Amino acid sequence: MTTRYAAPGSPIYDQLVQEHGDVLGEARKLADLTHRQADRLLGPSTDASAPGGEYPEQS
After folding, report:
1. 30-40 pLDDT, tens digit each
2. What number of CA atoms fall less than 13 Å from residue 47's CA on the CB side?
3. Residues near 13 by beta carbon (within 8 Å), at least 6 away in sequence
4. pTM of structure
């Protein structure tokens, strides 16, 4: 599945995709994969500003 944000029938965009591949679509896929891997590796956020975040104990 290829997602395009150019206007349908845009000859310049279509020609660039034909010549070079859908670079923007591939970048989106890679960014999504990277985001999912980071979420998996880093785990839940402990940032106090994030929903469910904890504030550090003060002494």
Report:
1. 999 999 999 99
2. 6
3. 4, 6, 7
4. 0.50
